[in-house]
Amino acid sequence: MKKLKKTVLAALVGTFVLSALTGCGGTADNGLVDKEENIEAGSDVTREVNIGFVDTSGSNILLGSEGIARDNGYFEEEFKKIGVKVNLVPMSGAGPAINEALASGSLDIGILGDVPAVNGKANGIDTTVIAFNGLNNFIVISANPDSGIDSVKDLKGKKVATQKGAFMHRLLLYALEEEGLTIDDIEFVPMTAQDALAALETKSIDAAVVQPNDVSYRLAKENGFKEILFSNDHEGWAAGSITEIRTEYLNANQDVAVAYLKAILRANEYIEANEDALKEQWIAAGYSAESYDYAYPLHDNYSKIEATDDVIANAKKTLSFLQENDLSDGDFDVDSWYDLSYYGKAKTELEEGK
């Protein structure tokens, strides 16, 4: 994306009505946050779309292009044009909870990491990808300063925590393999990223493998924890997120896919015109400006949408990773999973409307 012009993030617009989660069959047990955000579509509403996104914070935080589309009212405006009420549903259970809700039909669209998305598809959840959101997710391996760990080689025999089956798990295997090690050479502790960082801070584990964030930044910069690897220095060691839609729902509501992508394209136009938009969004969520530069040094946490060669290759590598590590015994054709014709229609409609 070309250099962004500097300005201040526009004020959040649109009226949001929070209500108890309905239509998602959700409880705290299945990883659904207990509220959904209903964006009113007006009196001519004839349909609804339920969109799930990862929010392990429990604070309704939605970042990137999708967050701009919500906060600037683009979702509301585009769905209103086709008589659809949009329900944005934060999912505290992350990708696995989104998979469960897509499988049950309580979500129609999911925005989730590539590993759970691929895993869900491999295990029979009938979805179609309408947007690849780029490869801008990396890992940091952060070590307890009392652990004696100074490099990846030193992880041998140590307690290392990360989320099993997530992209952090996959990139940990890459890091170990580069040093001639395997997962059997460490004491692998499956934990969510939040729990892993909490355990690291109390020094109950030796190292944590997480996506760089505000907490890992604080531990490294203020508390003396060692960062022995940052994967953005390694070509091909990246992951991304995916927007997928239940194929049955898509077949009956193709205009919903187009409206969704029009909102994302408008968000990307806003980001392009406002250099600090994504950083200001990060800060508004309660994080520090410094940790944004640390987590996204290229300031690129926006949706790229297109099926470029690298994102397709990454999806195929992800499927192989799941199969080779006995995390999935399913299979599917990655090249027939995505349909970006809706992206083309969205671009055309936006151009015609200008």
Q: Which helices and strands occur, and which strands form pairs?
A:
Elements: E1 16-20, E2 35-39, E3 47-54, H1 64-71, H2 74-81, E4 84-91, H3 94-104, E5 109-113, H4 114-122, E6 127-132, E7 140-143, E8 159-162, H5 167-178, E9 187-190, H6 193-201, E10 207-210, H7 214-222, E11 226-230, E12 241-246, H8 247-252, H9 254-273, H10 277-284, H11 289-295, H12 309-324, H13 341-352
Parallel strand pairs: 3-4, 3-5, 8-9, 8-10
Antiparallel strand pairs: 1-2, 2-4, 5-12, 6-12, 7-10, 7-11
Keywords: Signal
Protein name: Transporter substrate-binding domain-containing protein
Domain Solute-binding protein family 3/N-terminal: 60-286
Mean model confidence by pLDDT:
88
Number of helices: 13
Highest-level CATH class of the largest domain: Alpha Beta
Structural class of the secondary elements? alpha/beta
Major sheet: order of its strands? 1-2-4-3-5-12-6
Judging by the overall fold, what is the CATH architecture of the largest domain? 3-Layer(aba) Sandwich
Please provide the count of β strands. Answer: 12
Q: Which stretches of 5+ consecutive residues score pLDDT under 50? A: 1-35
Q: How can the largest sheet be summarized?
A: 7 strands, mixed
Encode the helix/strand succession as letters: EEEHHEHEHEEEHEHEHEEHHHHHH
Strand coverage percent: 15-25%
* Percent helix: 25-40%
Keywords: Signal
Protein name: Transporter substrate-binding domain-containing protein
InterPro entries: Solute-binding_3/MltF_N, SsuA/THI5
Family: Belongs to the bacterial solute-binding protein SsuA/TauA family.
